[in-house]
Amino acid sequence: MANRQERCNQCGRILVVPPEVHVFECAVCHGITQIRPTTGSWTPSYNPFHHIKIAGRFRGFVNTMMTSSVHSNYGTNNFGYYPQPQSLNPSYHAHGSKRALLCGIRYHGKSYRLKGSVNDVKCMNYFLIKEFGFPTDSILMLTDDREESNPLRIPTKYNIQMGLRWLIENSQSGDSVVFHFSGHGTQEMNMYGDEIDGFDEAICPVDYEEQGKILDDEINATIVRPLPRGAKLHAIIDACHSGTALDLAFVCNMNREGNYTWEDHRCLRTNKGTSGGLAISISACEDGQTSVDTSALSGNEVTGALTYSFIQTVQHEPGLSYGRLLNAMRSTIRGTKTGIVQLNGPIASLLNRLLGPNLRQEPQLSSSEMFDVYTKRFAL
Question: What percent of the chain shows pLDDT beyond 70?
């Protein structure tokens, strides 16, 4: 019998499963789905994960099914079935060994709108081209800039998902890919025991209120696990609660004196590794912290604190190590005086009271493998 397509009851994605499987777990959201036979009577069998599926409905968001078709083959690992990369929009083309996906979201018209996210993407685009030789046509920019008229370049959930697939598609040894996100991040309660702190991290597309957020599990499954040997991925995530936004296996726990240890976030239930490549994430803050949108660093333009400090540090210290990069960014942000955090409404005044005269967010470094952060040189 041929493989069949079934919808995950938890997130709505279409998965391809073998004919003999009647209870399966989605590897993206970990939801458990039990399939009712098409003929004969049916009594639900005992499912040890049933309580997990019920609890998972309280995640607070709804994922929609992907509109493109699923490949006829299916992918499995030791923790479930997941959708294969889908056919990309014809306007997405990979160019050369260096590619980047840059997403900046201001959330126009919302009470939680940001001011610096689109600026972040424009700065990152210029930085990648000027400092690291990324070809202009190998950078895909998704923004809700009012001047953006192409619907395929708006950072909706679907467009970000497709952009992530474009970023990693056909990657090979020697490739360097970059994912930069500047926007809102949040946390969702984890029901499946694969997060040390009990929460999944998520990024918020421009349409997340209607279409849902993108969980760290999905980002990991899309751009981390397929990364081939000899390829490298850098993610720069300028968002709240972004410390483990890629769900990587190791987190660099560094104190203010620069001493560090690698914290192991691996889980027997979930594969957080790559297919041999190296994935590194530089994020705005710890999972439990918030990041800010401020003019205190640049003096004129509003930017994300992480994006600005990252670009400035790398430009001013060519050939620096990852350890030096992390320490310098933290020092820049820690020492910045700011009177007004550039947010709108009562949240701004509340954050000012909480933050005091300084920005209080600690950029984080995580990786798919451990290394000496003071000898390994940063390079894109």
Answer: 65
Query: Residue 9 corresponds to which tokens in the numbers above?
Result: 């009851």
User: How many Å apart are CA 61 and CA 12, to the nearest integer?
Assistant: 12
Reply yes or no on whether 108 is catalytic. Answer: no
Q: Distance between CA atoms of 324 and 373, rounded to whole angstroms?
A: 8
Distance in angstroms (rounded) separating the CA atoms of residues 244 and 311: 21
Contact 254, 365 (CB under 8 A): yes
User: What would the two tokens of residue 27 be?
Assistant: 């590897």
Nearest to 191 by CA among 51, 33, 52: 52
**Distance in angstroms (rounded) separating the CA atoms of residues 175 and 233:** 8
Task: Give me the DSSP letters along 223-257.
Answer: IITTPBTT-EEEEEEESTT-TTTT--SEEEEE-TT
d(CA 192, CA 258): 34
Helix (H) or strand (E) holding 304: strand 303-304
- Using CA atoms of 139, 132, 301, 164 in order, give the dihedral in degrees to the nearest 10: 30
Q: Of 180, 184, 241, 265, which one is the catalytic site residue?
A: 184
- Give residue-wise pLDDT tens across range 196-235: 666 788 999 999 999 999 999 899 999 999 999 999 999 9
Q: Which residues pair with 252 in a beta bridge?
A: 262, 365
Kind of pairing between the strands at 98-104 and 176-182? parallel
The Cα–Cα gap between 90 and 67 comes to: 15
> At 330, is the secondary structure helix, strand, or coil?
helix
Answer yes or no: 103 catalytic. Answer: no
Distances (CA, A) of 96 to 135, 138, 153, 174, 280: 8, 7, 21, 10, 21
Tell me the pLDDT tens digit for each residue of 76-106.
333 334 344 444 554 565 567 999 999 999 9
141 strand-pairing partners: 102
Which element (helix H / strand E) includes 185? strand 185-189
Cβ atoms of residues 183 and 192 within 8 Å: no
Catalytic residue among 204, 240, 252, 285, which?
240
What domains can you pick out in the chain, each with its CATH number?
Answer: 4-82 (no CATH), 98-367 (3.40.50.12660)
Instruction: Look up residue 221 and give its DSSP letter.
Output: I
